[in-house]
Every structure is written in C-alpha cells, then in structure tokens.
C-alpha cells in the first residue's frame, strides 16, 4: 500500500482508481464511495499492522461504464495506470496518474452530453470586475471576457459551465455573487499572476504576443485563461494541440440577455421538470455540433443588421430549394461529431473506428462543398468556398487503415495490408502458418526423397519433422534428432526453430507494430487540426441554418423584417413553445403587438388570471429573439427594429437560502432592469408589486411605469401586465402609455378565455372564477363571493379596504342557505322573496315548489 498512499497523497481530493493487473481498485474511503455510487461489492482486506482496509474494484475494460457514473456523481476521478509491462520487471510495477477527470474536464463520450458543450470556467476577481475564461477540451473551444459581476453572471447562465474554478480567497465573493448553482473547485493563489498567465498562453500558442487573438487588453480575462491552462496541466491534460486559438466574447455584437431573461423565457432550460423549452422546439439539427451551436445562438442573438439578414437570406433561399436543402442535410448526417472527433485526434485518444469516421466525414464534406459552391446565395457560397475536404487526409486514412477496423487496437487488424512489409510478413506467419508449414513439408520431402515426411507440433519441443524408420537413412546431417518413437523419429531444423520463435511472438509483435503505425497515423493527422476544426464550425453553422429552414416550413414561420428603426410590429404572433403543447385540433390564438418610441412605448395589459398575459409577454420576447438569431418567426408578419437588450420580470420565485423573499427577488430583478436599460431595450414586466401589500404594490408599479415613460435618455419599449386596474389611469396622464386587455367572455356564471389582446383596460380579474376552475371547495368560493360583493359595496362609499374588511369581519360567517351567494341559491331566494303567499293557490304553490326542486337538481 506504500505506492498507493504516495500517489493518493498527490491527489487528496480525488477518488483514485488504482490499476492492479486487469482491475481498477479503490481503497478506504474511496472504496466506500465507489461501492455506493457504482453498486459494486465492498470488501475488506488485511492491511499490515492495521486491522483491515475497505476494497472495491471493477475490470479495467469496464472503465468507460463506471467512470461516467462517478463523474456525474460529482467526483473528481484520478486514473492511475501501470506505466510498464509487469513481465519486464521483477519489482513493484511503476504506476502513475495518467488523467484526472472532473465534471468540467472530460473527453469520454459516455460522460459528455452530445448536444451540450462541456465547459470549464475559470474566474479571476479584481475589485468590481471579474475575468472569465471558458474552455471545452472536448471541442477545443477557448474564449475569454471580462466585465462587471452582472455580465459574468449572464455568461455563466448562458454557457452553463460544468465546473468553475476560482481562488480559495474568493469563496465568499463567489457565493455572494453566484450562489451554489455550480460545481466548483478552488485553487491556491499563486497561479493568479498576470505574468504567469501571459507566459502560459504565449507558450501554449507558440506566439510572441496575444494581439493576434484580440485579447491583449483583457488583463483579467488573460489571468483567468492562464489559470485554466494551469488547471488542465494539473489534471494531466497536457496534450492540448487542438486548443489552437483563444478568442474574445464580443459583447457589442450580441443582444443582451441577463440570467433572469434566459431563465424566465425558458430558452434552454426550465424550472419545471420535463417542460418544453425553446431549444426543444427549435432543435432539429442533423449533427451534435450543430445542436451545440444552436444553443449558443439562442442565448446570444445578434444585434447587427448585416449578419442577421445574411442568416435570414440563407434560410429563405434554403426554404425555396427543397432538393438542395434535403441533400445537404442528408450529407451532414453522415459527418457525425466532427468537432469532438478532431479534438480526440489532437488528444491522441481517437480509436480506429473514429479515425475511419473522419474519413467518411471528409468525403461527405467534399459533396457539401460542391452543393454549397453551386448555389446562388452569397453567404451559402462563402461557406462552400471555405470548406476544405482535405482529400490528402481521407486518402491517407483509406490507404493505411483497414476498411472496417476494430474499436480497439489490441484486437489487431487495424492497419491495412500493404502498408508495412514487416507487418505483412508477421501476419503471414501468425495467420498463414499452415500454408507456410505445408510449403516446408513439400520442399523437404522433395529434397530428401521422403514422401511420408510430415510437419507437426507438440508442447514439449514445438514444431518438428517426423520420419518413419524406413526412411531414416535419408535424413540430412544438419537435422537434429529430438525424439525416437516405436515407428518413427522426430527432428528439428534451424529453419523450423526460427519459424517457431517467429510464430509464437508474431501476435505480440503485430500488436506492438500496429500500435506504433497507428500512433504515427494519429500524429500525422494532428497537422490538419485547424482546417478540420474550421470545417466543423462551417458545417455546424450550415446545419443550424438548414434547421431554421426546416422548422420554418414545418411550423409555418415567416421571415421577419429586421431594420434599424425603433418599432416592433408583430401581426398574428404565436408562442413557439405553447403552440406545440396544445391538444390536437386546437389552434393557438394569435395576437398583434405594436410598440414604438413615439406613440405607444408602454402597453399596460390587464385581464384575469389564466387569460394569457404572461404568455403574450414571453411570446413577444421570443419572437424578437428568434428574429435576431436569424430564424423565421411564428407570426403572420413581423417588423422588428433592432433590440439590444431584452429584460424580463416574469413569474414568482424566491431565494430563501440567501434570505430573500419572493418580493425581494422581484425587486432585485426589477432594479437590475431599471439600472441597465437602453433606448433599444424591450422590457417585459409581469405583475410587478404583487409580493407586498396592495397599496405598496400599486405605488411601486405606478412609479416604475412613470419612470420608464419619463426617462430623460431612453424610451424603452415595455409590455406591462398587471392585476392593478388602477394603472389604467396612467394613460390619462402619459401620452405614450396605452391600455390593453386580454379578453374573456362571461356566460352565465362561467368565463371563457378568449386570449385576445384588445385596446382598453379591464376592471375585473375574475379571480374567484379561476379558483373555481382549480377545484376550490364550494364553501370557500361562496364565502369569497360574499366578501367580494360586500367589499365592492362598501368601497363605493370611498372607504379603504381595511375599513371595509373590519365591517365584513363583524358579520357572522354563516353558511346557511339564505346568506350564501351561490348563484342557484340566490335565484331560489329571489324566487321565494317575490312570492305573495296570500294570493297563491294550492296548485300554484305546488308548481313553484316543483320549479325550486328542479333548480336544485340542475
């Protein structure tokens, strides 16, 4: 255990998988953890002077099965392998950690999510700014930025890193800013040096300056990036030639979505388990790298006209060319995950089948290039021009690898015949031995004149020539007699002995030679990492645009008109997610939304619960976002003046772990909006102020609307949904505030939600009707109706709610028939009150009684 303890001491925070023969073993606390997570047997063994030590293990070939389970359970896993062949040493086998796998540092397909990046985020804090670097070693992507905590929070929400590293001294700052939402690991302070980080980056990229990457002014980002490389080195990931560049996250090119908006609009995730999100609706990509790029585009829409319109033009062209679109998608499906495949080659971890997949990918790219080049759309032709089929690589792979190689080199048959003469010779010996032996037998029989000569084998002295006693005198003098039998004698020859040594070691030599030749092939492919990575990026981009075209046809989306104006004009808009959840045969109720800076900057939307106010807000935000992604939108028409920020305050949530109530969270989010708005912002506010008293809520909501209208610099376009009907009065005082309501139809004592946005305010919330739909007990509903009517009657006299409630409380809570405001009972009561018993005949009395009885039965 001394060797184990020494290695474990270097990785105290990791679960150590210790290779012993054909097994990976875990000991002590690691064994207890592993047994619990993996469901494997936990045993005990003697441990010298100690009484015992826990032990749990699994076969080495099951690593890809068990490793993902450990990492997904949040474990850092150090893989300790045997670094020499046990046959070559008489002492303890040399061992060492060959890889430290963490949630943010993994390349195994069984750990990675196919449609999501696996980012490691590195943070560096300095005063009120933070540097961030994001690296995904499974794709080679490396990006950096810096900014205030809100901006970094937005990036973390958008990129969703699987692991975040930061200095130990900043633990409190991190928790205060970002909470406990992420898997984190803290490092010592010393790597967080500007000079050390700069030197690490320059050395890694082999350059003298970072200016070429456009990050030379990002001092905090450089430190974060340097520490990311340092961490990868510490986790035994030093072969990072596929991480060939670093780029700056260009904040000024992208529409601002804070983390609240990413959450509230349910772009890539939802607080409700199994809920449909925007990415679920939009993602019909043909490749994993296309799916990952789509997620990026969703959380980082553009805010520059030309690139948006270039995307829209490509989508429009592809919609109009069905055959081209379908051919391109068919060939993209053949490519697979080229981005991660070339990264594996860079890491020297690609298996033979994956290298063959690279060949097929490049051949598919060759066809895609021809199709794109032949199109009449300029952006599409540009993609075609930039694609490089790398024919030399596919030809080299085809020549050197077997057509259908095994996944593992140890099984042999990886290198094609004719590549290496020695390999061909060894294969002939190992796998064509019978023919070779027959050749020897035939030749020696002809030379000696012994027709009954035969070659055979036994475990005692290997291959031999057997001669009957009748032909003993014909045996050559250089044959060595090994055994005499009753009827024959057995001999060996130098040629047979040499062949025996060759055939017995041939398979081992074949494995060693194939391994060397395969590794040489992998190394030669690393020279082409950059062009293949560019291919992967271009194919991902093309895949997303093809996807936009396909879903636009399927979902009846239209091309939005994007311009530099200040108007949002949506006609017949639909919510892209909700319309997919409707029951079969039910159509989504479309709505028009018009916002500008001159006449209708703010729309106050009133209407009952469940009428569709929140859906309308989200729908508007999603249509704008989709348009600026370069996607067609769910509407009849849409003209969008560029939006640079989308803010949302939608839905109720709390942060009780940090001592923040629902109302406090609401106020934090609203304050963030008001402090960061711009002239091109789109603001979506839902039920501001509902988490406090009525008067406080109305006052806050009123003041916010007034602030947005009267802002000296910005006329942010705003949809403001509320239950406070008092806010309808704002339109009388502020010319750019307009009242709208989401309509309902009242039929008897029931309401029908029409979900149509129409001009004018609403005076009724129909809350008790909604409570009835929710299954509230009838006694509660009846009492609520009674209290509501009394409050409304009292308040007509100008009394406050508090004074009205005092009067209601003084009245006894009687649930008797004649004091209940149940509609049927009220009708019966009115009928009885209107009867004149003095003039009623017995027959008429019986008829009235029968009528009342039928009312009750109905």
From TrEMBL:
UniProt keyword Flavoprotein present: no
GO BP, sorted A to Z: mismatch repair
In terms of InterPro entries, this protein maps to: DNA_mismatch_repair_MutS, DNA_mismatch_repair_MutS-lik_N, DNA_mismatch_repair_MutS/MSH, DNA_mismatch_repair_MutS_C, DNA_mismatch_repair_MutS_clamp, DNA_mismatch_repair_MutS_core, DNA_mismatch_repair_MutS_N, DNA_mismatch_repair_MutS_sf
Q: Residue ranges of the DNA mismatch repair proteins mutS family domain?
A: 681-697
Residues binding ATP: 607-614
Q: Name one GO molecular function term.
A: damaged DNA binding
Cellular component GO terms, alphabetically? Answer: cytosol
- Which SMART domains does UniProt cross-reference here? MUTSac (SM00534), MUTSd (SM00533)
**HAMAP family recorded:** MutS (MF_00096)
Spell out the family assignment given in the record's similarity comment.
Belongs to the DNA mismatch repair MutS family.
**Annotated function:** This protein is involved in the repair of mismatches in DNA. It is possible that it carries out the mismatch recognition step. This protein has a weak ATPase activity.
Protein name, UniProt field: DNA mismatch repair protein MutS
Q: Could you tell me which species this protein originates from?
A: Mucilaginibacter yixingensis
Q: Lineage, please?
A: Bacteria, Pseudomonadati, Bacteroidota, Sphingobacteriia, Sphingobacteriales
């Amino acid at each position: 255990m001394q060797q184990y303890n020494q290695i474990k001491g270097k990785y105290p925070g990791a679960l150590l998988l210790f290779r012993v023969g054909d097994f990976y073993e875990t000991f002590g606390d690691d064994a207890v953890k592993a047994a619990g997570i993996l469901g494997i047997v936990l045993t005990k063994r003697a441990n010298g002077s100690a009484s015992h030590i826990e032990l749990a293990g699994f076969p080495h070939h099951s690593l890809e099965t068990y490793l993902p389970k450990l990492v997904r359970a949040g474990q850092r896993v150090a893989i300790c392998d045997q670094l020499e062949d046990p046959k070559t040493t008489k002492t303890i086998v040399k061992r060492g950690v060959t890889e430290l796998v963490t949630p943010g540092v993994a390349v195994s397909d069984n750990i990675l999510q196919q449609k999501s990046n696996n980012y490691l985020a590195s943070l560096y804090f300095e005063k009120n700014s933070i540097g961030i670097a994001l690296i995904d070693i499974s794709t080679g992507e490396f990006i950096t930025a810096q900014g205030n905590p809100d901006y970094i929070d937005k990036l973390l929400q958008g990129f969703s890193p699987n692991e975040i590293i930061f200095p130990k001294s900043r633990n409190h700052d991190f928790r205060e800013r970002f909470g406990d939402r992420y898997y984190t690991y803290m490092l010592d302070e010393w790597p967080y040096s500007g000079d050390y980080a700069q030197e690490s980056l320059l050395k890694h990229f082999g350059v003298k300056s970072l200016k070429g990457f456009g990050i030379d002014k990002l001092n905090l980002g450089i430190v974060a990036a340097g520490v990311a490389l340092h961490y990868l080195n510490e986790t035994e990931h030093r072969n990072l030639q596929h991480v060939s560049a670093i780029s700056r996250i260009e904040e000024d090119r992208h529409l601002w979505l804070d983390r609240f908006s990413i959450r509230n609009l349910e772009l890539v995730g939802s607080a409700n388990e199994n809920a449909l999100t925007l990415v679920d609706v939009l993602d019909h990509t043909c490749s994993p790298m296309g799916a990952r790029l789509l997620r990026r585009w969703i959380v980082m829409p553009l805010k520059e006209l030309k690139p948006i319109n270039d995307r829209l033009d490509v989508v429009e062209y592809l919609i109009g060319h069905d055959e081209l679109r379908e051919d391109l998608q068919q060939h993209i499906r053949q490519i697979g995950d080229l981005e991660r495949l070339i990264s594996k080659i860079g890491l020297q971890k690609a298996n033979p089948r994956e290298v063959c997949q690279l060949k097929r990918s490049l051949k598919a790219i060759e066809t895609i290039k021809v199709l794109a080049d032949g199109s009449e759309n300029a952006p599409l032709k540009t993609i075609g021009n930039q694609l490089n089929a790398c024919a030399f690589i596919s030809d080299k792979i085809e020549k050197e690898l077997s057509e259908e190689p095994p996944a593992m080199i140890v099984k042999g048959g990886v290198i094609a015949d004719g590549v290496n003469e020695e390999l061909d010779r060894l294969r002939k010996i190992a796998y064509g031995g019978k023919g070779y032996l027959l050749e020897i037998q035939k030749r020696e029989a002809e030379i000696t004149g012994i027709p009954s000569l035969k070659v055979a084998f036994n475990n005692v002295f290997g291959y031999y020539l057997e001669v009957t006693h009748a032909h003993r005198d014909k045996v050559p003098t250089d044959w060595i007699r090994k055994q005499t039998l009753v009827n024959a004698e057995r001999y060996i020859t130098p040629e047979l002995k040499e062949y025996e040594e060759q055939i017995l070691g041939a398979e081992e030599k074949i494995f060693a030679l194939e391994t060397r030749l395969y590794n040489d092939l992998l190394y030669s492919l690393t020279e082409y990492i950059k062009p293949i990575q560019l291919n992967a990026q271009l194919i991902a981009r093309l895949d997303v645009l093809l996807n936009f075209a396909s879903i636009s046809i399927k979902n009846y989306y239209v091309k939005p008109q994007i311009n530099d104006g200040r108007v949002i004009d949506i006609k017949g808009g639909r919510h892209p997610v909700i319309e997919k959840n409707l029951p079969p045969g039910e159509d989504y109720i479309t709505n028009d939304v018009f916002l500008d800076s001159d006449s209708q900057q703010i729309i106050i939307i009133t209407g009952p619960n469940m009428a569709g106010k929140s859906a309308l807000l989200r729908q508007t935000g999603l249509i704008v976002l989709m348009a600026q992604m370069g996607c067609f939108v769910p509407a009849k028409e849409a003209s969008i003046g560029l939006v640079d920020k989308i803010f949302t305050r939608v839905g109720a949530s709390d942060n009780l772990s940090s001592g923040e109530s629902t109302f406090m969270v609401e106020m934090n989010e609203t304050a963030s909006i008001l402090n960061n708005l711009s002239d091109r912002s789109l603001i979506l506010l839902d039920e501001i102020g509902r988490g406090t008293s009525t008067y406080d809520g109305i006052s806050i909501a009123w003041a916010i609307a007034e602030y947005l209208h009267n802002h000296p610099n910005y006329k942010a376009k705003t949809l403001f949904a509320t239950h406070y009907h008092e806010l309808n009065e704002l339109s009388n005082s502020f010319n750019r505030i307009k009242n709208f309501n989401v309509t309902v139809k009242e039929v008897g004592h029931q309401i029908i939600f029409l979900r149509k946005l129409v001009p004018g305010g609403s005076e009724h919330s129909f809350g008790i009707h909604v409570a009835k739909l929710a299954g509230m007990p009838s006694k509660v509903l009846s009492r609520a109706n009674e209290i509501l009517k009394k409050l409304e009657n009292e308040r007509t006299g100008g009394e406050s709610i508090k004074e009205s409630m005092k009067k209601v409380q003084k009245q006894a809570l009687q649930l008797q028939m004649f004091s209940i405001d149940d509609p049927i009972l009220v009708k019966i009561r009115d009928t009885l009150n209107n009867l004149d018993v003095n003039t009623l005949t017995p027959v008429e009395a019986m008829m009235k009684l029968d009528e009342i009885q039928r009312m009750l039965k109905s």
